[in-house]
């Protein structure tokens, strides 16, 4: 299948990731941190090695600040529900995914004041000012996506981080669409909590997540066995154990490590350029298709990640995606779990068709996609 749904999960994983996950079942089939025997120690060393790689990639203060979670969504929930209390204020952007908006709504119902900062398309300075206006005396945290999974627009994270640091507000970043594609340094960008989806830009297995935690989370969302301080009836205070109750997903974690190795071998900058160039090629091809509605400007370097949203006039987004599926092409049609972004685009009723490229996609695949879409468009016109 020609796979252009990489914003959901990268469809092709590097051979190194596949080998690392497979080998984990043979060589690391023991519970890390849950025993003093050689097998458990070997598993613990493997987990620690991946912590070091993730800490280096994202500029964490130390390996202990790298928390492994079941998903990026879980990481977001750990933070929001662990630090916010009734009467606290939370600011989010107008492009957020449901992984943010749904827990935020739950918190609003128990008394957290929720404010939405409007993103001004194509004007980063105006967007920062929008966040500044949204911050109130009771604002405890700001959460912002690094890049929209619908429009691909990159947010001015560094400037928002500086604003939050100046005002003494906790800054949380959803890097689901950018980790492994754009450079991220949590210290340089004043990010207190970075939430990562390794199965996307780090080409790791699904069912994995990373939280880079630079500040304490007062109330862990999940409590239980950690392998340390077992006599205590309360959760340990120290990271990573404070947020890592239960058995870790060891095959997934070593897969993350192999994915980081792959990204480092290619270079984030090279990956980003290659993916963006192919996205621009597709975007320019879509402009030539009669009846194609594009919802953003061309995906320019530094302003967008390689995500394109469009529709064909006269046919629903889901029907377009189904017709492409019949031609053995995978894209996503609908709201992409991001109704906030679709309200901003005016596509909340229709949704959009989303194309997202990855480093393994080729120009030949892009040409096949465009040719198929052109044929679909012609058939729609002839029906009329």
- The count of DSSP E runs of length 2 or more, i.e. the number of strands, is 13
**CATH architectural category of the largest domain:** 3-Layer(aba) Sandwich
Q: Name the CATH class of the largest domain.
A: Alpha Beta
Residue windows where pLDDT falls under 50 for at least 5 positions: none
Helix content: 40-55%
SSE-based structural type: alpha/beta
Q: Give the overall silhouette.
A: globular
Look at the structure and name the CATH superfamily of the largest domain. Type I PLP-dependent aspartate aminotransferase-like (Major domain)
Strand fraction: 5-15%
Biggest sheet descriptor: 7 strands, mixed
- Count of helix runs: 11
The pLDDT mean sits at: 95
C-alpha termini separation: 31 Å
Could you tell me the CATH topology label of the largest domain.
Aspartate Aminotransferase, domain 2
Order of strands in the sheet with the most strands? 2-8-7-6-5-3-4
Order of helices and strands: EHHEHEHEHEHEEEHHEEHEEHEH
The number of distinct structural domains comes to 2
Mind explaining what this structure looks like?
The protein is an alpha/beta fold and 384 residues long. The chain folds into two domains: 15-265, Type I PLP-dependent aspartate aminotransferase-like (Major domain) (Aspartate Aminotransferase, domain 2, 3-Layer(aba) Sandwich), CATH 3.40.640; 268-383, Aspartate Aminotransferase, domain 1, CATH 3.90.1150. It is 40% helix and 15% strand. Strands 2-8-7-6-5-3-4 form a seven-stranded mixed β-sheet, sandwiched between helices. A four-stranded antiparallel β-sheet has the order 9-10-13-12, with helices on one face. A two-stranded parallel sheet has the order 1-11. The protein is globular. The two termini are 31 Å apart.
